[in-house]
Amino acid sequence: MNFGTVARRAYSTSRAALPPAIGSTKAIGSPKDAARMAKVVNFYKGLPNGSAPGGKATGYKARHFDGKNSDMTPVFQTIGAVFVLSYTIDYHFHLKHHKNVAHH
């Protein structure tokens, strides 16, 4: 397949994705259709133009790592989590030890 074929297919595909001109005056036959068309036109006029504005980042990364908010809180939270996890594991195995062996 050569580049010309690829370009032609891409062009025809992109053209097909565009909607037809439905707002033509010839398409309106009766007042009922005209009222319906007016509703459609008003709906599309109310939509914002252009790309959507970028949203403000939220969450853990935005609170602790991005911009002026960067601090040491994640380091302390990681140290605390490791301490709690290791204490829990140590306590669990200590209880297992006392279950099978006389108290020392």
Report helical residue fraction: 55-70%
CA(first)-CA(last) distance: 80 Å
Number of strands: 0
- Mean pLDDT over the residues: 77
The stretches of 5 or more residues where confidence is low (pLDDT under 50) are none
GO molecular function: proton-transporting ATP synthase activity, rotational mechanism
Protein name: Mitochondrial F1F0 ATP synthase subunit F
Organism: Podila minutissima
InterPro entries: ATP_synth_F0_fsu_mt_fun
Overview of this structure, please?
This protein is mainly α and 104 residues long. The protein has a domain of 33 residues. The chain is 62% helix and 0% strand. The chain is built from four helices and no strands. The longest helix is centred in the C-terminal third of the chain and has 28 residues. The protein is elongated. The N and C termini lie far apart (80 Å). InterPro entries: ATP_synth_F0_fsu_mt_fun. This is Mitochondrial F1F0 ATP synthase subunit F. One of its GO terms (molecular function) is proton-transporting ATP synthase activity, rotational mechanism.
Secondary-structure blueprint:
Layout: H1 3-17, H2 31-46, H3 60-64, H4 73-100
Protein name: Mitochondrial F1F0 ATP synthase subunit F
Pfam family, one: F1F0-ATPsyn_F
InterPro entries: ATP_synth_F0_fsu_mt_fun
Note the main attributes of this structure.
Mitochondrial F1F0 ATP synthase subunit F, ATP_synth_F0_fsu_mt_fun, single chain, elongated, proton-transporting ATP synthase activity, rotational mechanism, 104 residues, mainly alpha
Briefly characterize the structure.
This protein is mainly alpha-helical and 104 residues long. 62% of the residues lie in helices and 0% in strands. The chain has a domain at 72-104.
